[in-house]
Every structure is written in structure tokens, then in C-alpha cells.
Write a structure and sequence with these properties.
about 240 residues, alpha+beta, 3-stranded antiparallel sheet, elongated
């Protein structure tokens, strides 16, 4: 990676080794690019097109793929969360991260339906295992499901004391399409009473909605102007050598 070519080398002993190895000093950091953040004359706003990689963006703007690292230095959000995914990659990640099913109920879950219990639908006969509970939204994340629960169906489960517990299914959905939270008209998080539901004035934000919004944010970055890139890179390299 060309970014590390100008980092100095140091002797470093790994573990109990007696002979040091020569390695790149990755602990160094230069604030050269950080100092440009508030200087609008050095950068412009750029929206990353679909399928464009950092090296391709660098080549398109600067005629070389070597300056891809400046994007991460200038933009905290992609430095921390990575480059924007393609739509296909995003769909794959959402479904991999949230592969289960969510059952929502208005019945209180405070003292019943604990993690690990098996639940069974009294109408459909569908069974599943409770993986996680979200009491704030009245949700059960379930796995090993054998079918689809019916809205309004009573679901039962026998707890560790041998007591049969029941709830009524309000709705069920794939996990990535389930509510992560609710927002008001000002896009502020709003707590709900799960025994009542969110009501018509709140907007449901699903796990998929959040991932899509986060990925869109990653597409908007600041780019050092092409006529200034050589000056900035030279200053960075000199700072790393000193």
C-alpha cells in the first residue's frame, strides 16, 4: 500500500523474541490532511458513483491510483466505517447481519418468553427458538423457524419451571425488515409503548432503512482538489520523515 511507503522503520521485538524485527512504524500519524478540513479552498465535495473503488476514484481525479488514502484521511466517516458498498454488496450484508425473523407483540414480555425457549403457534403449529428480546419494541428475534406465524395467532411456550406462557402475535417479518426504532417528523428517535404500538404519527425505521441511509452517507466525501494534491502529499511525506 503506497500510503505506508513513507513511514519510517523501527526495530521491534514480538513476544519473547530476543532478536528485533524491522517493521514499519504504524503508530505515526500526521495532521497535515486534518488541517485542511476547515480550509474549503483545498477540497471539493464528491459523490462516489456506484461500483467505483477508492483506487479508481484516485485515478479518475489525479491520474494515479496512489492517492486513494487521502480520501480516508480527509473523511472521518469512511475512515471509521469503510468505503460505500454497491447495492448488491449492501443487500448481502444486510441479510447476513440480520438473517432471522422478528415477532412483534403487544403482550408484555417482561416476565415471559425468555431467550432459549421454544415457541409454538396454536393455529399454524409453527415453532421457533427465541434468540433475542427487545422489550422496548415488544419484539422477539427468533431462529430455527419452521414456517410463518399468523397475525393475531396465540403463541405458547413452556418455561424452565414447566409453566405454559402465551402471547398474541401482532405481526411478524424478516429481521432486516423489522423496526429498529421509530422517528417523529423531525427525524428524532421516539420511545413507544409496545402494548399500544407506534401510532400513525411516527415513522418506522427498519434495519434495512438504517443500512441504506448509512451507506448513502458514505458516498458523500470531500476530495482534495487535483491542482493541490501534489502539494498536500508532499507535505504529508515530509511530516512522516521528520
Amino acid at each position: 500500500m503506497s500510503y505506508f511507503n513513507f513511514f519510517p522503520k523501527v526495530n521491534y521485538k514480538f513476544g519473547d523474541e530476543t532478536t528485533p524485527d524491522v517493521i514499519t512504524n504504524l503508530s505515526l500519524y500526521s495532521s497535515v490532511v486534518d488541517e485542511l478540513r476547515e480550509n474549503v479552498s483545498f477540497y471539493f465535495d464528491y459523490t462516489v458513483p456506484e461500483f467505483e473503488r477508492p483506487d479508481q476514484t484516485s485515478f479518475k481525479l489525479y491520474g494515479t491510483s496512489d492517492y486513494y488514502w487521502t480520501f480516508y484521511m480527509l473523511n472521518d466517516h469512511i475512515r471509521e466505517r469503510g468505503w460505500a458498498l454497491t447495492n448488491r454488496e449492501l443487500v448481502e450484508k444486510i441479510r447476513a447481519d440480520y438473517p432471522d425473523t422478528v415477532v412483534t407483540t403487544k403482550t408484555s414480555l417482561t416476565d415471559r418468553f425468555k431467550v432459549g425457549q421454544t415457541i409454538t403457534g396454536n393455529i399454524t403449529g409453527v415453532s421457533a427458538t427465541i434468540k433475542h428480546r427487545n422489550l422496548d419494541l415488544g419484539q422477539l428475534v427468533i431462529t430455527n423457524i419452521t414456517g410463518t406465524f399468523q397475525d393475531g395467532e396465540t403463541v405458547s411456550s413452556t418455561n424452565t419451571s414447566g409453566v405454559v406462557e402465551t402471547i398474541i402475535v401482532d405481526s411478524s417479518s424478516l429481521e432486516y425488515l423489522a423496526a429498529h426504532h421509530y422517528e417523529n417528523a423531525d427525524k428524532e428517535y421516539v420511545d413507544i409503548d409496545p402494548s399500544v404500538g407506534p401510532g400513525a404519527l411516527l415513522t418506522e425505521i427498519t434495519y434495512e432503512d438504517r443500512y441504506i441511509a448509512f451507506n448513502e452517507e458514505l458516498k458523500d466525501i470531500r476530495i482534495i482538489k487535483p491542482d493541490l494534491i501534489s502539494q498536500v502529499v508532499r507535505a504529508f511525506r515530509e511530516a512522516m520523515r521528520s
